[in-house]
């Protein structure tokens, strides 16, 4: 199998939320071989979002399965209480929601002290200006393109203008910060997202739910954005 070009400016992060969890290791190894750039782990607590998924123990078991970075998307009411546990389990980056962190600056400092990359996620209805003060400190912004909580939802096109606004903010104050998008990302939405300024693409159902399998799904998505 020919891997994707590792130097591609476009990064793809398969979300294991849509994987066949009865053979998770195999499913992660498959997307690694197909050229995925990182693995996206959706953590939900049934409080911040109406669904429950994974805890640090899953990250611990996943860590030796792949050489890819593990990014942990924390959709939980009390992210500060779990940062150490996810870092210790092997997370490479920790993403908290701007809507869920009361003392966001402190939370980001905490992540940095743990030696992990720090990201902030922003929901579709939250204005981009909420990122303004924290943006200089960030490694990554995760713009939600669905309401968080479930895989397999439809991309919300109303988020495109905000993504373009975040791209302008990043370019002016922190050009090294990555702009990642999450939710309903497939070969139809991805070209529109790239035009708006996104460079990292989380994809669950378009990869793991692809009828012809995760490798074909990933290839199709990468092909749609020239990555
Ligand atoms: O954070 C979330 C959902 O809350 C995502 O990471 C989903 O896992 C993306 O799944 P698809 O929309 O690509 O199926
Ligand atoms: Fe996510």
UniProtKB/TrEMBL annotation:
Which residues take part in binding substrate?
A: 15, 73, 149-152, 182-184, 204-205
UniProt pathway annotation: Carbohydrate degradation
The record's InterPro entries line, in alphabetical order, gives:
Aldolase_TIM (IPR013785), Ribul_P_3_epim (IPR026019), Ribul_P_3_epim-like (IPR000056), RibuloseP-bd_barrel (IPR011060)
One Gene Ontology cellular component term attached to this UniProt record is:
cytoplasm
Query: Catalytic residues?
Result: 42, 182
Give cofactor(s), names only. Answer: Co(2+); Fe(2+); Zn(2+); Mn(2+)
| Cofactor comment | Binds 1 divalent metal cation per subunit.
Query: Main role?
Result: Catalyzes the reversible epimerization of D-ribulose 5-phosphate to D-xylulose 5-phosphate.
The name this protein carries in UniProt is Ribulose-phosphate 3-epimerase
Task: Give the originating organism.
Answer: Paludisphaera borealis
């Amino acid at each position: 199998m020919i891997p994707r070009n590792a130097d591609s400016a476009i990064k793809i992060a398969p979300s294991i939320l849509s994987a066949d969890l009865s053979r998770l290791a195999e499913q992660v190894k498959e997307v690694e071989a197909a050229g995925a750039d990182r693995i996206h782990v959706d953590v939900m607590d049934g409080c911040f979002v109406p669904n429950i998924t994974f805890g640090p123990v899953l990250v611990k078991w996943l860590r030796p399965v792949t050489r890819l970075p593990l990014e942990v998307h924390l959709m939980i009411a009390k992210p500060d209480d779990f940062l150490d546990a996810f870092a210790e389990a092997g997370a490479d980056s920790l993403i908290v929601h701007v809507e869920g962190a009361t003392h966001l600056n402190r939370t980001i400092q905490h992540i940095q002290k743990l030696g992990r990359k720090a990201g902030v996620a922003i929901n579709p209805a939250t204005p981009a200006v909420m990122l303004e003060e924290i943006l200089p400190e960030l490694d990554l912004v995760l713009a939600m393109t669905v309401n968080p909580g479930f895989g397999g939802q439809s991309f919300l096109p109303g988020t495109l203008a905000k993504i373009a606004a975040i791209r302008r903010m990043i370019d002016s104050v922190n050009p090294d910060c990555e702009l990642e998008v999450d939710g309903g990302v497939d070969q139809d939405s991805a070209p529109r997202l790239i035009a708006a300024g996104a460079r990292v693409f989380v994809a669950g159902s378009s990869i793991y739910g692809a009828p012809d399998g995760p490798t074909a799904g990933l290839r199709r998505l990468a092909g749609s954005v020239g990555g």
